[in-house]
Specification:
The structure is a homodimer.
Chain A: H1 4-20, H2 25-32, H3 36-44, H4 51-60, E1 63-69, H5 73-80
The first copy, chain A, binds a DNA duplex through helix 3.
Chain lengths: 101, 101
Amino acid sequence: MPETDSLHTIGAQLRRARLAAELTQEQVAELAGISRPRYRDIETGAAAARATTLMNVARALGLEMMLIPQFLVPAVDALLSPEAGEDAPAFAPQPEPDDER
Amino acid sequence: MPETDSLHTIGAQLRRARLAAELTQEQVAELAGISRPRYRDIETGAAAARATTLMNVARALGLEMMLIPQFLVPAVDALLSPEAGEDAPAFAPQPEPDDER
DNA sequence: CGATATTGATCTGAAAACATATCATCATTC
DNA sequence: GAATGATGATATGTTTTCAGATCAATATCG
């Protein structure tokens, strides 16, 4: 069970959110403060991002990274399933200046 | 808002889950397949883990990493609030968030 | 057709996450 | 007080993420 599966799952989720928001890879990368090639690798599952990078990318797409107790995952999935694909309502791409260096 | 806040938030969450499970840092590190110093840095928020590493750590603690649409975060938080986290009965006694419909 | 936009891909080099080893601190317990 | 166990911390070296640049493939459109 290579963790490449997890990477592809995350990437697919990001891609769906990105297309739903009608953003290009470059725009998401810009919002998340990373380069386009890097975002491409994350979205295609070619490479793992850092936790902080993934959080920035997720927020740029109107998503939030959360740690859920495993026994509550079904309940959360139930919350997600009905309106998972809702065309994004008020989603505010904030410039989010971050990433020290 | 530096992302060190995010790291501390995640770390605190991991620590709470670890103590609830009565595991040592070394045991969690072993379960997650990383070294103890590395897990310590993650738990204390001293350093960011890779997304894959964070997922392995989370699973070792009975947690699952999920990407939640931001507008659903309050609902998920409500699910988590009662007694998030430890000795898990097969299903949670949900206090029925008196949410209208 | 030619121009533009989006995405896929590769290369170089720097920065950060990793392992491993070692030592310090602070409890607890004998 | 000495021994044990858990945690904090530092140092060295390897691996991987990252930026930035560049080029190719595939649309889409005037």
